[in-house]
Amino acid sequence: MSDRIEINSAFIEQVVALIESNNSKELSGIIADLHFADITEIIEYLSDNDAHILFDLLNEEKSAAVLIELEDDTRKKLLSELTAKEIAEEVIDNLESDDAADLIGELSEDKKEEVLSHIEDIEHASDISDLLSYPEDTAGGLMAKELIKVNENWNTLQCLGEMRKQAENVKQVHTIYVVDDNEKLLGSLSLKQLLLAENGSVIKSIVTTDIVSVNVNEDDENVANIMNKYDLIALPVVDDLNKLIGKITFDDVMDVVKEEAEKDYQMASGISEDVESRDSVWELTRARLPWLLIGMIGGLLGAKVIGVFDLENNFELAFFIPLIAAMGGNVGVQSAAIVVQGLANDSLKMENLFQKLIKELGVGLLNGIICSVVILGAAFGLGYGMGLSLTVSISLLVVIVFSALFGTFVPLILEKYKIDPALATGPFITTANDILGLFIYFMIGQAIL
Amino acid sequence: MSDRIEINSAFIEQVVALIESNNSKELSGIIADLHFADITEIIEYLSDNDAHILFDLLNEEKSAAVLIELEDDTRKKLLSELTAKEIAEEVIDNLESDDAADLIGELSEDKKEEVLSHIEDIEHASDISDLLSYPEDTAGGLMAKELIKVNENWNTLQCLGEMRKQAENVKQVHTIYVVDDNEKLLGSLSLKQLLLAENGSVIKSIVTTDIVSVNVNEDDENVANIMNKYDLIALPVVDDLNKLIGKITFDDVMDVVKEEAEKDYQMASGISEDVESRDSVWELTRARLPWLLIGMIGGLLGAKVIGVFDLENNFELAFFIPLIAAMGGNVGVQSAAIVVQGLANDSLKMENLFQKLIKELGVGLLNGIICSVVILGAAFGLGYGMGLSLTVSISLLVVIVFSALFGTFVPLILEKYKIDPALATGPFITTANDILGLFIYFMIGQAIL
Fold first, then answer.
1. Residue B261 lies in a domain
2. Does residue B198 share a domain with residue B309?
């Protein structure tokens, strides 16, 4: 039994040393024992040149699997060194149709055509070019063509025979789908049902017709929600006529879920590109700079707002600028995050916009009243004087209520106009609420002081 | 084929109307056609009383499945109305060992004992009490005892016969595990291999020994990372002697991944409890108040910091308080988020603390220099005078570098002391960096102006 290996820096150093001393024999020995997911991880830590050398030592099946698992930029670099013929014969031939289509979809138009023309298995080529026609973020873009399907009129023995034939093209058998003579999806058969059925039973008599399927045009996030909700390993995909045309497996969807969660988290944290801590200083800087520049514009606008008021004669107002700005930002982010999460897991659909804003008004008022009472006592107790304490307290209430509504409203509006609502969290809401909060604070300050 | 139903507010209203008019016949008809995941969703939207009435109409199998899927507080309410005997006979009997253990684990000590004593199937009871001994956040806490296991010395026909027997206790067959005479895990057999093997082959000759397994004490987040990395539907769990003692399935892990992602996202957004937009105004307020109060303490400290300096004669310094505070917060959150994500997906292990801080210093310097040059030009261009513009520019550089290091350092230290590093993102970093940023800004301001 091959144990999982710990990919640590000592191991990477060992691999690099072997590559650089041209010891391809020992290297081949090591990678032969490794799972492709481990090889993928190692390659991500190597220099471009070392990555190439290691990649060239892999057998076809492993190199195909590794390519699919790699990050986009690493894959692009490795693919650029292969001819269209090599990609078709060494890579595509060893991939299931969905992975093959994803990989070909990343190539330039010219190379795409060339690779497709070099695929020898005509059925595989036509499956792939069929899959290429679906948008990436739909069920069609996620599904694979390979699946095991049996006719309702067969008996279990025929079924096993046919499955044996079909299984040769399928990497992993998840579920057996049952169709009628017109290829329409009728239901499914689990390995368990097949095992427990009497020899020779007709499929029709043991099929489970209670099956969840999706239309090929369904949005990929909905596909993920459906598979998650119903705990499905595989989800059959049908066309508008309910004909079975593909299946989506749990690992494709796990990737969608992970990517969505990471993207939302990064957006909420003000990171504009998909980066990881192992990326270069420049990549990390580039991913962080856009929001910082927007934050600076917000800061300059804030300076303008403050400048409008007579600060010279009310300079104590400046003491609470950080408090007002921070609280507006915090409340806005909290509200927006709850909306973004509700939109992602589909739990928001029960209330209309008006009901949501009323509820958020309640939450904002409750938080606002508690905070403004606390700050009134604290500020006055710390000796800031009644006028200033009252100004801060009233402003805080108004800012919290306003920020809560703003934080709820913006992501809902973005969603309505098909813009990713997660864009509303993080620096955007913080910056906008900073400026508006300051404005409210100084207006109230001028009225009271 | 039963289609997925859209659970919308009209449908919920229809259900409520049927419950309140005591029309249990029509109600039973509707829920008989529904998947348990849909019934779960409906129950979450009902009042406690209506939820009870609907729940009582479910058959045993469905009510057990629904209970497992419900949110903790709803499950608790429904379970509180059942006697220990009912829980044992109607619920636990219809659950696999892992779900059964999770559910019993939530009961009070007394009720736990009582429920266990009422379980009639002795093997099921001992499986459950065995699982109860593992901490919730380990492989042991996630695994189920039910699995299909065959001996390496059997042939495929024996194997099918034994599998038929075992399959009756297992809901879904994912993988067939192969063990030796001492129950030690040797490898696995897929349905595909079994289908393609010649009748009568010895299992030993067709087993795949290249199998990934985890020790029963492995941390649950690592389990999720392993299953995700190797795209596994099911992962066998072994004890220290490599004996096969359970299996973890993809749906358990999908829940771990989702929960972790949601928790991190909520922490980064300053939400301290697991809430959803459908929760009550009070629950939503309670989840948001703690960080707001901490933000207020930060704001009061900020006021103190500003009060220390001679603002009256340098009141223009106040103009850029929002900018400095916001930028410190934004940079800190960005840095912390990248570390938190790196820790979660295990991609940070290659560098030591010093290397990480050096890299972050580079990112901070690069971002800082760009931002400070931009702000110097912008502030001077907007007529703020060279002294103030220079103060803001230099302070910004120092604040960005410092916040980047601070944002990297804090989550790493928390991780080291086994505290959730995600705690470092969101309001905590923002608040701390606000105060420190102000201090730096006024120090530099006093030196220059």
1. no
2. no
B381 at interface of A, judged by CB pairs closer than 8 A? no
Residue ranges of A 153-172 with Cβ closer than 8 A to chain B:
160, 163-164, 167-168, 170, 172
Quick check: is A197 in a domain? yes
Structural domain total, chain B: 3
Binding-face residues of B in 267-326 toward A, CB within 8 A: 268-271, 275-278, 281-282, 284-285, 288-289, 291-293, 295-296, 298-300, 302-304, 306-307, 311-312, 315, 318-326
Please check whether residues B297 and B436 belong to one and the same domain. yes
A188 to each of A202, A228, A235, B280, how far by Cα in Å?
Answer: 13, 19, 11, 41
pLDDT tens for B138-193 read 999 999 999 888 999 998 888 878 877 777 766 677 788 999 999 999 999 877 77
Q: What is the pTM of this model?
A: 0.82
**Would you say residue B64 lies in a domain?**
yes
CA gap B104, A443 in Å, rounded: 58
Regarding whether B328 and B232 lie in a shared domain, the answer is no
| B299-322 per-position pLDDT tens digit | 999 999 999 988 888 889 999 999
**Confidence at residue B3, expressed as pLDDT on a 0 to 100 scale:** 52
From residue A14, alpha-carbon distances to A27, A134, B335 in Å are: 10, 43, 31
C-beta neighbour count of B356 within 10 angstroms: 20
Q: Do A37 and B350 touch (CB under 8 A)?
A: no
Instruction: Please report which confidence band the pLDDT of residue B431 belongs to, taking 50, 70 and 90 as the band edges.
Output: confident
User: What is the predicted ipTM?
Assistant: 0.80
Query: Residues A311, A316, A317, A323: is their CA dihedral positive or negative?
Result: positive
